[in-house]
């Protein structure tokens, strides 16, 4: 039987992260043998670090490795640009490395504290999009030291990554809240394993299964937890699915968030950070509407506390908005991967559809930073860079897996689905993004107040989502719900009229 010890490992990058990994591998002596570091730094090439030679430049040395049994490469350059990673990956693939792993971005490596358990197989999200900004996570998380932190949707893509990074914040307790038993089990198990391998600090981890839609339960659980900080990521997010299930979208996203806010206010949560989406801007889908209304709920709660550096009750409610993230569950990247593995075709809605993209780790690092520097009553926007054409992303992913677009894997255009548009917006006509002095975090200023009374709208929607014996006939009436939303949200009504008249999907 083959053992780990027989594995020949090459670490790409002889800096602090690579050296830390090499020391861990040597100490544990179960993962294999580090044969050499590969590096492009002339000052490192030719030296030995802890008895391990540093070879380079990488492009030249890699050709020689093609003649040897090079089992595995670990790319340990957390600050590497996307362009450099693409170059390195191409070299390693060409010379025949059987396995290529990578360390997470610099935002997750705290003061050189890299660990082998943090490595994972390289995938397209590591090579697509722009180079993530380096965030000093330890400094950014100082406001959470000794605090009790609740993450809703902790088993989801954003929530779980927030939890991984929160391990380094020195929180006293980390509450992992979600309604999916399996996803909460998985993130709880992963975090315990990371802690056991020396990642982060020893926060107490508390998994909690619960449902935001249960108002009494949310009141009870927040009273028990005495959380200081809440990061609210939980939501139904799949646009076409929510178009098919509009009542569920409003019930879970809007009324669930309202239940959480009410409980947070009652039990004196000091800081409430709500995660929202670009689809909330002049929304054209029920999902987008639900998130737009959630933004208003949080900002209204802030106004009740007293907008400013801190609310009059010491409560701080804020919103952080951003676009798509690479590789999240239900996103196009896992779908494209599955389609490529099946031989195609890869389905794209429209040849010109574009979206903003950011890696999950970068988005979460910036959310955590915004949560610390943000003030009560403000809406913050993560700078997403330039939008990426989905067709270009599909082509890059096809090449990543070793095929040629159209020649070997076809791309098929299937048309925009209900609730989708060609281009998303990061801010609306009534909003103005302003620089607040932090890299890739902007503050959104409103030019005029919101229109319409939110309480009146919610009163109209409530008996549709929550059974009311006084109005039993409207319960789960999706058409009535859509009519109410169309009248309340101009962009949704405009989208509907365009579709009925055969107009543009954009």
Task: Describe this protein with a few key phrases.
19% strand, Rossmann fold, 22 strands, 506 residues, 38% helix, disordered N terminus, 9-stranded mixed beta sheet, alpha/beta
Structural class: alpha/beta
User: For the residues shown, what is the average pLDDT?
Assistant: 89
Question: What global shape is seen?
Answer: globular
What's the CATH topology label of the largest domain? Rossmann fold
In total, the number of domains comes to 3
Strand % is 15-25%
Query: What's the end-to-end separation, in Å?
Result: 58 Å
Low-confidence stretches: 1-5
Characterize the largest beta sheet: strand count, sense, and whether it forms a barrel: 9 strands, mixed
Helix content: 25-40%
Radius of gyration: 24 Å
Describe the structure.
There is one protein chain. This protein has 506 residues and is α/β, with parallel strands linked by helices. It has 3 domains: 4-122, Rossmann fold (3-Layer(aba) Sandwich), CATH 3.40.50; 137-446, Rossmann fold, CATH 3.40.50.720; 456-500, no CATH class. It is built from 16 helices and 22 strands. It has helices at residues 16-28, 58-65, 82-94, 137-140, 157-166, 181-196, 215-225, 239-244, 246-266, 286-305, 332-341, 360-373, 390-400, 454-465, 478-488, 490-500, and strands at 8-12, 33-38, 48-49, 52-55, 72-75, 99-102, 120-121, 148-152, 173-178, 204-209, 229-232, 271-277, 316-322, 324-326, 346-348, 354-355, 357-359, 379-382, 388-389, 411-413, 431-438, 441-446. The strands form 5 sheets. Strands 10-9-8-11-12-13-18-22-21 form a 9-stranded mixed beta sheet, with helices on both faces. α6 (181-196) links the parallel β9 and β10 (204-209).
């Amino acid at each position: 039987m083959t053992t780990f010890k027989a594995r020949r490992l090459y670490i790409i990058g002889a800096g602090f992260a690579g050296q830390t990994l090499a020391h861990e591998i040597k100490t544990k002596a179960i993962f294999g043998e580090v044969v050499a570091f590969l590096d492009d730094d002339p000052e490192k090439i030719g030296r030995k670090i802890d008895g391990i030679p540093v070879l380079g430049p990488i492009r030249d040395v890699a050709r020689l490795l093609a003649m040897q049994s090079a089992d595995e490469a670990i790319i340990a350059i957390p600050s590497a640009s996307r362009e450099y990673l693409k170059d390195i990956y191409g070299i390693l693939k060409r010379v025949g490395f059987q396995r290529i792993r990578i360390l997470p971005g610099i935002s997750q490596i705290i003061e050189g504290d890299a660990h082998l358990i943090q490595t994972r197989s390289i995938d397209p999200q590591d090579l697509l999009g722009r180079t993530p900004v380096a965030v000093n996570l330890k400094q950014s998380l100082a406001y959470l030291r000794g605090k009790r932190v609740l993450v809703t949707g902790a088993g989801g893509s954003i929530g779980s990554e927030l939890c991984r990074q929160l391990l380094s914040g020195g929180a006293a307790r980390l509450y992992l809240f979600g309604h999916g038993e399996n996803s909460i089990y998985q993130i709880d198990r992963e975090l315990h394993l990371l802690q056991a391998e020396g990642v982060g600090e020893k926060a107490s981890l508390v998994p909690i299964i619960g449902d935001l839609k249960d108002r009494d339960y949310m009141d009870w659980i927040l009273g028990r937890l005495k959380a200081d900080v809440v990061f609210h990521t939980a939501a139904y997010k799949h646009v076409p699915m929510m178009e098919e299930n509009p009542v569920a979208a409003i019930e879970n996203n809007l009324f669930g968030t309202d239940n959480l806010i009410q409980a947070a206010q009652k039990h004196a949560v000091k800081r409430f950070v709500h995660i929202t989406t670009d689809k909330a801007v002049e929304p054209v889908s029920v999902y987008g509407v639900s998130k737009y209304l959630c933004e208003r709920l949080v900002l209204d709660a802030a106004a009740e506390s007293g907008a400013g550096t801190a609310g009059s009750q010491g409560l701080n409610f804020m919103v952080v908005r951003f676009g798509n993230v690479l590789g999240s569950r239900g996103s196009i990247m896992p779908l494209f991967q599955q389609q490529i593995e099946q031989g195609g075709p890869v389905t794209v809605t429209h040849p010109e559809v574009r979206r903003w993209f950011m890696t999950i780790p970068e988005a979460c690092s910036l959310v955590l930073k915004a949560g610390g520097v943000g003030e009560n009553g403000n809406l913050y926007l993560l700078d997403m860079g330039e939008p990426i054409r989905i067709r270009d992303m599909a082509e890059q992913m096809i090449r990543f897996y070793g095929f040629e677009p159209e020649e070997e894997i076809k791309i098929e255009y299937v048309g925009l689905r209900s609730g989708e548009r060609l281009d998303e917006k990061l801010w609306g006509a009534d909003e103005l993004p302003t620089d607040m002095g932090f890299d890739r975090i902007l503050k959104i200023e409103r030019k005029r107040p919101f229109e319409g009374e939110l309480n009146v709208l919610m009163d109209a929607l409530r008996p549709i989502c929550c059974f009311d014996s006084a109005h039993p006939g409207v319960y789960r009436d999706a058409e009535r719900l859509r009519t109410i939303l169309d009248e309340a949200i101009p962009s949704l009504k405009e989208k509907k009229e365009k579709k009925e008249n055969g107009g543009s999907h954009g």
